[in-house]
Amino acid sequence: MSTNFSTSETRLNLMRAFAGESQARSRYTLAQEKALQQGQYVLSALFKFTADQEKAHAKVFYEHLSELSGSTIKVDGGYPVDISSRLCDLLKMAAHNEDQEADDVYPAFAETARAEGFAKVAQDFENIAQIERSHSARFKKFHDLCTSGRLFSSDKPERWVCMNCGFILESEQAPQKCPVCGVDQGYYIRLEMAAWGL
Ligand SMILES: [Fe+2]
Ligand SMILES: [Fe+2]
User: Fold this and answer.
1) Angle, helix 106-115 to helix 9-37, in steps of 10 degrees
2) Distance CA 37, CA 95 (A)
3) Which ligand has its closest atom nearest to the C-alpha of 50?
4) From ligand 1's centre to the CA of 33, what distance in Å?
5) Which among 30, 84, 141, 145 is most buried, taking Cβ atoms within 10 Å?
6) pLDDT tens-digit profile of 85-120?
7) How far is the CA of 114 from the centre of ligand 2 (A)?
8) What whole-number distance in Å separates Cα of residue 27 and Cα of residue 35?
9) Are 163 and 194 in contact (CB under 8 A)?
10) What is the DSSP annotation of 172-187?
11) How far apart are the CA of 132 and the centre of ligand 2, in A?
12) How far does the chain reach from its first CA to its final CA, in angstroms?
């Protein structure tokens, strides 16, 4: 079956996805600021890293709508209210929303797009669902560390890296203050979890 794009369900799903990604980006940007206020630089960077990727997803979905430029698309949708001053909670809520996109929403949108004859859109929904699954896994990992008080400590020696100056040390505990540049513990992350690894 091939459907006219301007009357398709897929155009509505693309707008729903654009709205969802835009909101996720905003939620993570707010969480990023909150983390920074609490001295949690690594968590702040995690939210920023993910927020930027949500923006990239928003762009992919939005550009599929380019032939409808100038029109207004009305959609309904359910969007989460995830407000907390506790960073552990924000990580949990973020993971939950990522799961919903990955497991339910985007696979369904992909199926509709494929049925309507929009193969590239379907593929983008599937690929981005996969990314959201990795977002969920990352948020869960940090939520776990956060709730168990292990963001900066471990039961075995770990290599820790300062995200400000790059100093690496091996210990069961990240230092209270970086011995090289003096920033707080919140800048320390397990080296294996740092974005660029080593
Ligand atoms: Fe996304
Ligand atoms: Fe995501």
Assistant:
1) 160
2) 22
3) 2
4) 19
5) 145
6) 999 999 999 999 999 999 999 999 999 999 999 999
7) 22
8) 12
9) yes
10) EE--SB-TTT--BGGG
11) 4
12) 49
Q: How far is the CA of 121 from the centre of ligand 1 (A)?
A: 14
Total-model pTM: 0.96
Nearest listed ligand to the Cα of residue 55: 1
Query: For residue 43, is pLDDT > 80?
Result: yes
Q: Which two tokens stand for residue 187?
A: 């800048």
Q: How far is the CA of 98 from the centre of ligand 2 (A)?
A: 5
* pLDDT, tens digit, 9 for 90 and up, residues 146-176: 999 999 999 999 999 999 999 999 999 999 9
Residue 41: both structure tokens together: 């630089």
CA distance 153 to 173: 4
Ligand 2 centre to CA of 136 (Å) is: 7
Tokens of residue 130, six digits:
């996969």
